[in-house]
Amino acid sequence: MLAGDKSLRYFNFFLMVVVTTVLMLPILHALNRSVEPPGGLGNYIRVLTDARLPRFYLNSIIVSAGTILLTAGCASLAAFAFSKLTFPFRNTLLLTLLVTLLVPFTTMIIPLFVLIRGFDLYNTYLGLILPLAAFGVPFHTILIANYMNGLPNELMDAAYIDGCSDFGAFWRIMLPLSMPVQAVVIVLTFLGSWNNYLLPLILLRDQEMHTVALAAVSWANDAGALSQFGEVSYDTLFAALFLLAAPTLIVFLLFQRVFIGSVTSGAIK
Q1: Which one of 9, 38, 70, 219 is at 20 to 30 Å from 153 when CA atoms are compared?
Q2: How far apart are CA 126 and CA 132, in angstroms?
Q3: How far is it, in rounded angstroms, from Cα 82 to Cα 62?
Q4: pLDDT at position 266
Q5: pLDDT category, 1, cuts 50, 70, 90?
Q6: Which tens digits make up the pLDDT trace of 155-214?
Q7: Which CATH superfamily includes the segment(s) 54-268?
Q8: Domain extents for the chain?
Q9: Strand, coil or helix: what is 259?
């Protein structure tokens, strides 16, 4: 039995190494390509010295912050209602929310574009933040609701006895206790909004409104236009992607302990 457990442990370790290697190969290739001659480290210098870099970062920060606030706020309130309150058609609404997760994102691009243009939000921060939040709220609502389901209902009763309203119980009791899963929501929402390429490409027109995901492609096209053959400069593209992905790595490292703890808390229970 012990020998079998040891063999299984070695097999799992071997499998983990293989999967990690396969996943890391594209990243290592991109890193190697970003420092290849003739550009070398000049690819990174070209990106860092671009006068548009602060503006691109600012655009992404504004969009990500707005998306996080809107997504976390709406998802937390909805999750609290589904988890701790009783109201008509609750199960129907929850089922409807689950069904929205099955709709492919790409099928809603054209209606979304028409809707944003109709509300005169095209090429604005709000016109990008609202769709990003809307696509994230259903999943995060289910995530937070499942976490709140594990919190004792007696806490709600105690809050009511102390004179709290429903919102008071949410704000004073449930929201502070659900901070671990809120950290997960913040990290996932930030990663999704910061790295999103398709929505900014469709909903933003002016270059001064571009986010970092669009900026990387712009740098690659600009550098390629100056080259001998006028092709896309993938060396510059990979360098820009590594530099623009740095904030996502920093955010994950800052929230790593809380993020992993929240994800594994259900298994521990």
Answers
A1: 70
A2: 10
A3: 30
A4: 47
A5: very low
A6: 999 999 989 999 999 999 999 999 889 988 998 999 899 989 899 999 998 888 989 888
A7: MetI-like (1.10.3720.10)
A8: 54-268
A9: helix
- DSSP codes joined into one string, 126-163: HHHHHHHHHHHHHHHHHHHHHHHHTS-THHHHHHHHTT
Interval 196-205: pLDDT, tens:
989 999 999 8
Residue 128's pLDDT is: 95
Q: Which tokens go with 264?
A: 């594994």
Q: Which residues contact 77 (CB under 8 A, 6 or more apart)?
A: 170
Instruction: Give the Cα separation of 204 and 226 in Å (integer).
Output: 25
Measure the CA dihedral 121/115/82/102, to 10°. Answer: -130
Residue listed under structure tokens 């210098």? 45
Structure tokens at 226: 């100056």
Left, alpha or beta for 103 (phi > 0: left; psi -120 to 50: alpha)? beta
